[in-house]
Fold each of these.
Amino acid sequence: MILIVILTSVYALGSIIGLWKLFEKAGEAGWKAVVPIYSTLTWLQIIGRPWWWIIMLFIPIVNVFYGVGMIVDLMRSLGKERFYQIAAAVLVPFIYFPYLGFKKDVSYKGKASEIPVGKKSVAREWADAIIFAVVAATLIRWMIMEAYTIPTPSMENSLLVGDFLFVSKFHYGTRTPRTPLQVPLTHQKIWFTEIPSYLNWIQLPSYRLPGFSHVKREDVVVFNVPGVAENNYMMPRDQWIDYPVDLKTNYIKRCVGIPGDVLEVKDRQLVINGQPLKNPENMQYRYHVISKDEINQRVIDKLGLDPEDYSPYGRTAPDQVEYAMFLSAKKVEELKAMPFIKSVELPQTDHESDARIFAGSKYSPWNGDNFGPLTLPSQGMTIEINDSTLSIYGSTIRDFDHNKNVKIENSKLFIDGQEVKKYTFQQNYYFMMGDNRDNSLDSRYWGFVPEDHIVGKGFFIWLSLDKYGSFFNKIRWKRFFKLID
């Protein structure tokens, strides 16, 4: 946090000092650079742009383009039109503005809107346009919003496979880059290849810039899934890659537990701090359905079920066909009302220990239906180190809590060769679950989500495609611009 304050102060101070001197070169009083709003109006006057541009600077995404445009115009007003000069002004204004401001041979050439644009070759115009687009898109993707696609049914029916959504970075505050040597606009690999898109030669400390909200219970959150196994799904173990935090696979789930919460699942019902948590409206479970005959495809389509949502067991009697179906409460009622349906039952909850479950041990014989109680670590929380606590928190302390040289041996914790009897957590942790509760690989199976793995908040759906829909029904029009809740 201290480093963030220092960096923010250096950025702001350098930019203001630079603008003070540049305003003076343009014949304006330097002190105007210090006054919020007024400094922007003065800037617009210097470059010859209308006052209403200031309104555009308050509109997310749009403000990036107008802000970059103002910087480009300011450089043109100073006779600095080469690409490296504009790039320096956009990327490091706190350095480049003072440099130009104190440089004696830099002078004001007039309003950018009145300066004729120099003739460029077609190749140069295309190159400048492409580079500008890449820079702008990279900044937007890093600071404001990033596009994301729903690949699996773990959040159905709240989010559907084929939903395209925007993830807000500014809600929780964007993270500073940890892996700077990366091809822009890529994630783990270069598009359409198996070639890594990054070099991990440099790993920077990561900090979160100020946001206007914190992760809350019931938020739909995109995050980097912590575990190595989950990042190498379907890959042979000898080919697993331990990705840097910011390049781990993106998951989207609902936050059901925040730091300090005591979380428990009792007969499928989430209980937080002793109180049942409100269930999502479209939450699904796996039901056992018995029909008098095979269910017609028209009925399946009417219920909005994709092939992944149901599995026929086959005919188990002359007048009985059985299915497994992932259904919301609303769809259960629709199905029960159909005359050919004999029963729609939720199987009894499982009370057997599941070896796949997170923190499964002799101290925690849990499963997906009955889990906990479990206290979520919060920054500053201290625990006693023993066999029981290590079975739950040991892997988190070793892998995610910013420690080096951690060993767990004979129910003891060693950090830098020293045995630790009590441990204090260094960051916050969250618990994430999918709304499709019986078809979701979530925190019940791989554990806590560290705060530095949080990417952003699911904001709204801008497109939705049904991969099983016909040509005329491919687009789910009703989901356009639907806010995520």
Amino acid sequence: MRFIETMHKTIPDISVIVPVYKVEDYIERCAKSLFEQTFDNLEFIFVDDCTPDKSLEVLQKAMSAYPNRVSQVKIINHETNRGVATTRNTGLTHATGKYIGWVDSDDWVEPAMFERLYAVAEKNNSDLVWCDFYLIDTNYKVRRSQYCVENKVAVIKSLLTGFVHGAIWSSIVKKELFVKHGICFPDGQNVMEDKMVFVKLLYFSKQVNYLPEALYYYVKENATSITSQWGIDSMIQASAKHNLRAIFDFLHTTELKFELENYVQYAKLEFKKVLLNSMEIKSFQQWKEQFAEANSYVLRCPNMTLRQKILGWSVSHGWWFVIKIWVQVKKRIN
């Protein structure tokens, strides 16, 4: 591993970690949005996970337009491709800021994002502050509210049921939480790795706060991203299940295990509800078998549509004639 670093004159208030892999079409926009932040005392850590394209060249060119930011940039190079979880850990190892922020290199942020988050954190002595975001796809832009009661247990419940997004990139977190509690990303498990970490960070936080402003732009259109292949790749699903089980195992060791039991089951249903969308018998069979212990909770799951609840309940109870009728109706409608 090698990295390029320029000495900081002061300790950064926030270290922003940016994994880099196959993003030559996106990273310039991302980098500009970071270098144009209204907050000055930042550290930018770009971790190159052996990207095979021209992402680093594009990044270097973008840096040249912001000479005042060059001294704040670290570029770290993996010698082999390690995956996003390990890449995030590498960034953490080199981060020196009081808070850690995260930006995926195919996304971008509002110019005042880190100034606004830091102001809330300092005012409230927050361990963790999160905000809203925009979901960007080819044909639409949708604001996603992350509102939740500013109580860590309430946020964990909302995270498990999918009402709060599981990604950490719309937040800043005190670095000491990672250090004190030995929190890191699971090497080699690159789906929902941040959700697992987010749950642990929330649990160990004493003060959490929400900023009701959409400051992050999450791009769904990147065809090379892992999330774009969700539901069609068995290895991706296996990694997601690994990290979900790690969440459940962790919560089971805490005093919250009984309070969160229902929400753990809802999280299992949230994970597999995508299988109900394809209207294929094979997917329905997967639904029935994956996390089968959660099937009895389907009718009360708060983040499933009526259609998904009816389908899920019918599949769970072997009412295949209901499924066949539904499929036929769907075909006629289409």
